[in-house]
Each structure stands twice: as structure tokens, then as C-alpha cells.
Task: inverse folding
């Protein structure tokens, strides 16, 4: 998924679920999006966190 698509998907998911979403780079180099509480990978792979409660 492209960076633009990942960020748009993450923002939509964060606003829908009202949870923090992380965008991270998977082992094969692709970008993925998951709720922060489900991310169990290496923190250095996180590209961005989307917080629906942040300003």
C-alpha cells in the first residue's frame, strides 16, 4: 500500500474505531496499518501513529 493510501486508511480507521492506529513497515517493505494495541512488532518499524483524540 502506498504511503498516501496507508495514511488515509489509518485516519479513517482511527476515527471509526476511536483507537490509536499505527502505520508500520512490514518485513517485506510494504506499509501496513493496525490498532496500536495489536501491534507486537519492532517499534523501530513504526512510521506514524494516528491518535483520534489528539489535536
Result:
Amino acid at each position: 500500500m502506498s504511503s498516501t493510501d496507508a495514511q488515509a486508511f489509518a485516519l479513517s480507521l482511527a476515527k471509526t474505531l476511536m483507537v490509536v492506529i499505527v502505520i508500520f513497515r512490514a518485513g517485506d517493505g510494504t506499509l501496513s496499518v493496525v490498532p496500536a494495541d495489536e501491534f507486537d512488532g519492532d517499534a523501530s518499524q513504526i512510521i506514524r501513529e494516528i491518535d483520534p483524540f489528539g489535536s
